[in-house]
């Protein structure tokens, strides 16, 4: 029987990111997918700053920033009249990687290239048919009928997840909208390609986003059209019916003259549902990304949240696989990520309901109050920051909380009160010095490694303690004296990392522990977080 440490089901961005994270940290991984090959259509097309940071830490960002379109504005019209212009993107946040208007297909290609460099590759046309688990692992049956034995099975297989069904985890939710039409079309019209355009209309909203050329040197005329099309409809429409209806809607609702749609690379009809898995783990089977939460398309939160799930789980599962942590560490994956998904779902659901408001009161509030507010610079900064997920903190999670599971008492430097960043917070991309004195950036040192920020000429005991628990994947760094602050939880509250502080930072750029050069305090955190009272067995 074939064996592996982790069987990843699903070769979309979430599954690929998880596989890259695990392989880079020494776990053996197989990635399988029921599809015949890589997706060529662009389901998601915007990646916020946090998602770009994840790709950067995984070593998969590559040339994506130079390939991305610089269309970071959203102009909203009522008929021919522009009523709001929202500047969207990196509004002074000074992130470690930029937000990008880039197709999901290109993101997946970059992740597959990184996976190949790590020695892995997706196995296409290989569906998961069955799985049963015991105390030591999971026996899975794949499309070829042959069993595979894995210590852990992770479902990254989307909203119709076979993994979730086989694990018996519930996926409750509710329908939020009637029918939307989505089409990526070749179209000539008098519309600015330097930004996204939206129209509010009594019959339903319409959005048009410029898309990168599918082929280098091809015509620069590809648009993503998203249109709300409520009402009674007979069955599932064909691609031709979708395109014909999109053409009608563009003429009726935008006030812009358009030529005929000359072709499409993708067309779909869907309704928005909000769903959240009852649990992210059942024994040795876990859920990540869309298998655990289903989002509305507004705000670009689906792929972003999935990448964050994958990064959070990867370092924890790698420690468990290597014997450096008990499997109870995996419970913190749900504790940290599921509350975030619930919050993001509430926001995307509210945004959807505002966009599709059809009653007179709802339309008045949207058109006369909400839309004009988008011109206010403070609102633009808030919108960008909210959707970026740079604000994500695990400060209330079990690894940062006081008590037996790990962390520090409230009031300690790493606890819930005190200077930023606190335990659980994302840390900024600080200027640092490596052990040999060469300059670096903090976020460039992550990926497969933890970082230990230590004072110059001190805290050798802290480094020894960290490596005793985490091995050689701990990189010692010194804060560059006199360097300017670069980013923080937002650009108005820069991180306050003193030159005398010792800060242990997780591979996902969140603070694990912070305090004085006290190896006993760090030892206590590592013991509580990873294994409880006993040392791990490798």
Describe this protein's structure.
The protein is built from 12 helices and 24 strands. With 538 residues, the chain is an alpha+beta fold. A hairpin with a 2-residue loop joins strand 3 and strand 4. Strands 1, 2, 5, 6, 7, 8, 14 and 15 form an 8-stranded mixed sheet that branches. An 8-stranded mixed sheet has the order 4-3-10-11-12-9-13-16. The protein has a 6-stranded mixed sheet with strand order 18-17-20-19-23-24. About 5% of the residues have low confidence.
Q: Which keywords apply here?
A:
538 residues, single chain, 12 helices, 24 strands, globular, 8-stranded mixed beta sheet, alpha+beta
Gist of the model:
With 538 residues, the chain is of the alpha+beta class. It has helices spanning 13-24, 49-58, 64-67, 104-117, 162-167, 239-253, 302-321, 331-355, 360-373, 377-388, 460-470, 519-530; strands at residues 2-9, 29-32, 73-78, 81-87, 122-123, 128-133, 138-142, 147-155, 173-186, 196-199, 206-210, 222-228, 263-276, 281-282, 285-287, 293-294, 431-433, 439-441, 450-453, 474-479, 488-490, 493-494, 502-505, 511-515.
- Note the overall shape: globular
Low-confidence stretches: 402-416, 483-494
Assembly state (oligomeric):
single chain
| Largest sheet entry | 8 strands, mixed
Structural class: alpha+beta
Q: How many beta strands in the DSSP annotation?
A: 24
Gap from first CA to last CA: 24 Å
- Rounded mean pLDDT score: 87
**How many DSSP helices?**
12
Give the fraction of residues assigned to helices: 25-40%
CA-based gyration radius: 24 Å
Please report which band the strand proportion falls in: under 5%, 5-15%, 15-25%, 25-35%, 35-45% or over 45%.
15-25%
